[in-house]
Amino acid sequence: MHIAIAGNIGAGKTTLAAKLAQHFNWDVHLESVEDNPYLKDFYNDMPRWAFHLQVFFLNSRFNQTQQIQQRTKGVIQDRTIYEDAHIFAKNLRSSDMLSERDYENYFRLYESMITMVQPPDLLIYLKADLPKLITQIEKRNRDYESGIRLDYLKKLNEHYDEWIANYKHGKVLTIDVNNLDFVARPEDLGYIINKINIELFGLF
Ligand SMILES: Nc1ncnc2c1ncn2[C@@H]1O[C@H](COP(=O)(O)OP(=O)(O)O)[C@@H](O)[C@H]1O
Ligand SMILES: Nc1ncnc2c1ncn2[C@H]1C[C@H](O)[C@@H](COP(=O)(O)O)O1
Fold it and tell me: How much is the pTM?
């Protein structure tokens, strides 16, 4: 079984991934953040580092999907390769922070890779409005994210809404997390686990 968790920056993907992995006794595959050689530079100067960062994430996410495809037990994945291309790279292009030439080059590489990627059995989309994202980004307190602009998060949310409405790779569970606190309230975590059980195993 392979569950992937999608959602904007600060939506709660990593936190939920850890909790689900513990509940189901499955492995968790996180994204490359602390060891990412471009992320800090990217936040200081997006047009300068956009292409480098996208190629780094694409390669690291592709390697992760190859590992997941060889799994021997259930796995929870924190963010998908689809989001790199259809959310982040697309947004950088539409904001003119990635040139048409670099975007085309990137997207052709993505299309070659995606033929070798198996979709998750279930995609969980954590949907959060800006106030929730901002509160949680502040709570996490990564120094290089302190200057994230509101309109950057807003545009990413718009890309997420469009992408999820057109997602055709398999089952999707959209969870509105605006009023959920699965850190402090076990019943909120139980609510999500219950929905997963229904979606994947037909259990009530
Ligand atoms: N539903 C939630 N309720 C309360 N706090 C949350 C919730 N989801 C995430 N958090 C907190 O918000 C911060 C960011 O969450 P994180 O899981 O790192 O988000 P993401 O991986 O989507 O960027 C963390 O400090 C986490 O503990
Ligand atoms: N493909 C990406 N392009 C730009 N930035 C990205 C991409 N994937 C992840 N990120 C950033 C967003 C956050 O600052 C960190 C970690 O993501 P998070 O949603 O907090 O788990 O990397």
Answer: 0.96
